[in-house]
Amino acid sequence: MECEKVADEALQGEKLDVLYGEADAAARARVDSHLEACAACRDELQALRSLRRELRHWRVPIARPCFTPRGLMVPHWLAAAALVLLAFGATLGVSGYLSLSRALASQAARAAELERQQRESLGAMQASLARAPVSETDAQALAARFEADLAERLKSSELQQAERLDRRFASWQERAEVRRRVDMAQVAASLSYLDGRHGEQLARTNELMGYVLQASQKR
Amino acid sequence: MGRSDEELVEACQAGEAYAFDVLVGRWEDRIRGAAYRFLGSEDEARDVAQEAFLKAYRGLSGFKQQARFSSWLYQIATNLCRDRLRRRKTRPQVSLEALEETGPVIVETRPGAHERLIERDLAEAVRRAIHTLPEEQREVVILKEYQELTFLEIAQALDVPVSTVKTRLYRGLVQLRLRLETEGMRGRAPVPVPAP
């Protein structure tokens, strides 16, 4: 048995609208009216509903997402604060490393210069000894004086180097502290700005709430 | 309440890159699901979904919102699937998933095993039946039955009139009904299942 209106495209389209819940009231009324009179269409619609239930058994397997998961969403202000702190840490690290490198290089140059001076002095003394032979006693006294002089010079040099190194470190620490304070001030300013934005909104909300309370009290 | 697709598209066009992330999160699963049903391969479906979003991102500045964003996205994904299916005809491939589906059947003895086997057979019969449909009918059936697009959205996605969509869908459903009857699968659904 076949529907008499099988060639009625509009009606066939409306049947699909009904099947998928997209029909408006008028279309639904037309289809219902036709179904009352047409057993073929009633059967067909019933069969299509049953088919749709069967089609739903084919499911998509659960798979990993196409894109890398981003994990926790961080608010923009927090990300900005983290960036500022990161920049601060990096600045501190790099400036500290550079400063320490410069101090060590400077100390190494000074040590090399002192060693050169000592060698020159030793060479001169050896030359004078070779030119003017002296008695064994004089030679021993001269050697003792030389050793004492050398020990004194070395001690003085070490003290000077230690003092310079201390001064360098003190200066570096001071600069690092100043840098840290400046960076912290910038971080605080950034956070205050962000807080301020929220604060403005809060203040505005409080103000509005105040108006509401005043209005309710007047009543 | 989140922003609508249209608002997110406008935000993207205004330079807010994060808005596109939201659109991806919203549509990723559905686009991948449609591609899987078109192609029958999870890996290819994932590739198509990535490619579709990439194309959409690149073309977003020229998107005028005359159609819905989802319809446009489905249009991109459908075209990508068509390209892949066309390439397959010239370079036939065998997917691992297809091999698995024809692999040995594991006999289950746990409670409910019989129902699960029936359901699996039915799902496989439906998959095979849908893949025997002509491409144009298969696309409409998948977009309507599984992606739950409206007729208008499908028409926009496939760039054809609504009447054509309905004709293709009707013919596809009739074919599926006959095919499942031939395989003896009609009326074997064990229990109603929730929407996929």
Write up this protein:
The complex is a heterodimer of chains A (219) and B (196). Chain A is mostly helical. Chain A contains five helices and no strands. The longest helix of chain A has 83 residues, at 136-218. The two termini of chain A are 76 Å apart. In chain B, helix 2 (17-39) packs antiparallel against helix 3 (42-59), helix 7 (135-146) crosses helix 9 and helix 8 (151-158) packs across helix 9 (162-182). With 196 residues, chain B is mostly helical. The two termini of chain B are 24 Å apart. The chains are: A mainly alpha (219), B mainly alpha (196). At the A-B interface, helix 1 and helix 3 of A face helix 2, helix 3, helix 6, helix 7 and helix 9 of B.
| Gross geometry of chain A | elongated
Q: Span between N and C termini of chain B?
A: 24 Å
- Unreliably modeled segments of chain A: 68-72
Mean pLDDT of chain A: 82
Query: Radius of gyration of chain B in whole Å, from Cα?
Result: 19 Å
Strand runs of chain A, count? 0
The arrangement of helices and strands of chain A along the chain is HHHHH
Sketch the major β-sheet of chain B. Answer: none
> What is the makeup of the main sheet of chain A?
none
User: How helix-rich are the residues of chain B, as a percent range?
Assistant: over 70%
- Principal-axis shape of chain B equals globular
List keywords for this structure.
A: 219 residues, 5 helices, B: mainly alpha
In short, what is this structure?
The complex is a heterodimer of chains A (219) and B (196). With 219 residues, chain A is mostly helical.
